[in-house]
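pasting for ref
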Amino acid sequence: MKILGIIHGNRKINSLHGSFFEACKADPSLEVSLKKTEFSGHAKSMACEGKFLYEMIIIHGGDGLINEVVNGLCSVPGKNPKIFLLPGGTGNDFIRNFKPGKYDLSSFTQKLRQPGTIIPVPYCKTELELRYFMNIADFGFGGHVVHSLDYFRQRLGTKASYFLAVIKSFLSYKAPEFTLKFNETTHKKHFFMVAICHGSVFGDGMIIAPGNDPLQANFQLVVLGNVSLWDYIKNLPKLRKGLRIKHPEIHYHNTQEVQLDSTRTLVNGETDGEFIQGKHIQLGFSENKIEVCC
């Protein structure tokens, strides 16, 4: 089996994952090529170029690296190789949807041969770009946080950046007004945040869409309307526990398509932690499917 390993160039490989790669290289039935990313977008180009050259891509990194690989694969029509996830990022939220067990050193290479889970791939389309994602997209507060996060990462690295980005966003954020359409309904107001959830976990462990199953081509839409920052803060413990929040301005819906439109300003958003913005935004499910192992 021909395998491409894409490793985030700025992340350390722990001893367990190092042993995994050594076991892969020592297995005569595997032909493994390991490559480290050298710049933003490098994983996307490697995945695009390797789509038909490899049967599996091992991803060592976080949600952002997964997002790059998925976008590289889906940018080219045709069947996608399997992807195998080794959590090496900051939040590692997408893999939490699958609750993988502890790795047994004696069965490392066997895990590569086990069947994975078929995941339908959602898309997010603005007037500027088409983006694919695997876990969660959100617009409003989450997009504002990610925009600030990029600023802090360039100056302080990753550890303190998320906390500082959230604090900065609390102080500067103003809920944007836009029109939200789904399930043949239309809502126009100031939204604190709209989360389009394929998976259930984001923001370093917050379970915003309890029970949502990424195996299905279905979104759990979580709409936060006229809520205060204090409402958001006091309900964080419930998000950690995976409890739905009871509030007159917080609603949960099931849908397969979502549209957001703004007549004034660009709306900030994020897909799997990667910043995106637009005035006219459509989300749905693409024809792509990816087999995920972990």
